[in-house]
Amino acid sequence: MLHSNARPTIAIIGGGFTGGAVAWNLARQLPEGAAQIIVFEPRARLGAGLAYDTADPVHRINVPAARMSLDPRAPDDFANWLAETGYVENDRESVTPDGSVFPRRSAFGAYVWSRIRPCVDSGAIVHYQTRIDRVVREGGRWRLFTEDGTSQDADCVVIASSHPAPSVPRVLSSMLEGHPRFIADATKPAALDPVRPGDDVLVVGNGLTSADVIASLLQRGHTGRITSISRRGLRSRGHAARPQEPHGDFVSRPIVSARLLLRRVREAIRQAEHFGVSWHAVIDQVRSQGATIWRNLPVAERRRLVRHLRPFWDVHRFRIAPQVEHALAMATISGKLETQAASVVAVSYHAGRIRAALRLARSAGTLIRDFDAVVVTTGPAHGQVIQSQDFLADLADAGLVRADPMQLGLACDLQSRLLDRNDRPVAGLYVAGPLARGTIGELMGLPQVSEHALAVAGEVAGFIGARRSENAA
Question: DSSP characters for 248-300?
Fold first, then answer.
């Protein structure tokens, strides 16, 4: 047993940005000594997670620093930290011509840790550098078992774990598994090290991870040809040429269908053009009002939106940093980078290389190409959330958690309490961050994730306050 005392205990599974933010907000909201806050995270630092733990200098935040903060009530906190630390002096490339700052992601991870670390040093937050294997309900409490053989009792559990790894197309895994230059998960540290400078590379996927991969290869002086494919050939867009305020209104007249949402967005974009405003500002407004828009949509329409419109939303909402956009544009102009609307239909080996048959979109035929390396960047396998971690699978088997109807994460209510197989909230079991977006709505980036972390901390603090009152009675 790791800890056992009279104070209520809050266990947070996952100490990336979401888990770190929940813990930090709890440490500030709860009276001193009111509860023990424990975070289970295998990384040495809290708050960075997969996104901000990267050491690759090419990986930059995808929105200006002025719009990112651990504390949504202090939106300038990260920008102020950059100024206080003199960061820009050592990274002149982070500043764009309009004055916006796009620092390396590692800088944001360092900033978040600088805010959380005092709570760890003081003992207000306890960090166990391990993973959780099992979570079991015992009476009105929980017991968590770690991979190193210890256990911890808790009154409340917050699941703030990460997305599953990418879903690898079967046509690739069945033939290429074990190949030294078949990279099934490009988000792992040093994943691109096996790729040689002169290799011809096939990148399967055209989203943010694809942009990171291509920019990293170019930064290393890659000379081989890079072919990036996706079913629709859509690539993540860049930012507007100048800062703009969000434009449009998508909540005054409730939107109750995916088709109506699409029509309203198109109308807003056409209207914005008359005011010299680009589509970026309209999408920013959809994003800021996303939670209300999502709640107004029936479940069937949410499914329809995810099935038909999500690829178009992703490439407009998830934008790449200007520095990355420039690198990709120059590579395209020089002929180093080619983007195709295609999918892999067959793979074989030919003369020591990987031969791929690429079916072009819109019945344009099939293209046969030889490659030296294949990198999968298709994004997280959202529909495999429960299967991705043993403790979630066990909770699902016990009927305590289930996937949301859109297969985006875990089913929860608007208070972020997880729902059991009978659609009832489970006392003392919460979800924070992107895994809650099937209910909450837009939760894939800041500031929405930091706002949700603050809200979850408030719900948990209320639960712990009620538990303390029960114990006192």
Answer: --SSSS---SHHHHHHHHHHHHHHHHHTT--HHHHHHHHHHTHHHHHHHS-HH
Phi–psi pair at 127, nearest 5 degrees? -110, 115
Q: Is 353 helix (H, G, I), strand (E, B) or coil?
A: strand
- What value does the mean pLDDT take over residues 211-239? 93
Are residues 217 and 192 in contact, defined by beta-carbon separation less than 8 angstroms?
A: yes
Mean pLDDT across 146-170: 91
Nearest to 163 by CA among 36, 49, 25: 49
Instruction: Evaluate the CA torsion angle 51, 55, 57, 58 in order and state its sign.
Output: negative
What's the burial of 270, exposed, middle or buried (CB within 10 Å: 0-12/13-18/19+)?
exposed
pLDDT at 2: 57
pTM given for the model:
0.93
Helix axes 279-288, 310-317, angle to 10 degrees: 110
* Alpha-carbon gap, residue 250 to 295, rounded angstroms: 12
Both structure tokens of 99: 């004055």
Task: List residues bridging with 146 in a β-sheet.
Answer: 132
Residue 107: per-residue pLDDT: 96
What is the maximum alpha-carbon separation in the chain? 77
| Angle (nearest 5°) at CA 467 between 463 and 472 | 150
Those residues with Cβ within 8 angstroms of residue 157's Cβ, 6 or more apart along the chain or in another chain: 10, 11, 12, 13, 135, 142, 144, 428, 429, 430
Instruction: Report percent pLDDT > 70 for the chain.
Output: 98
**Chain centre distance of CA 230:** 20
Q: What average pLDDT does this structure show over 455-469?
A: 92
Per-residue confidence (pLDDT) for residue 50, from 0 to 100: 83
Partners of 125 in the β-ladder: 37
Mean pLDDT over all residues of the chain? Answer: 93
Kindly state the average pLDDT of the residues 386-397.
94
Strand arrangement of the beta sheet that strand 151-154 belongs to: 132-138, 141-146, 151-154
- Pairwise CA distance, residues 448 & 63, whole Å: 13
**Residue 119: partners with Cβ closer than 8 Å, 6 or more residues away:** 23, 24, 27, 125
The Cβ-side half-sphere exposure at 379, using a 13 Å CA radius, reads 16
Give the pLDDT of residue 473.
66
For residue 223, is pLDDT > 70? yes
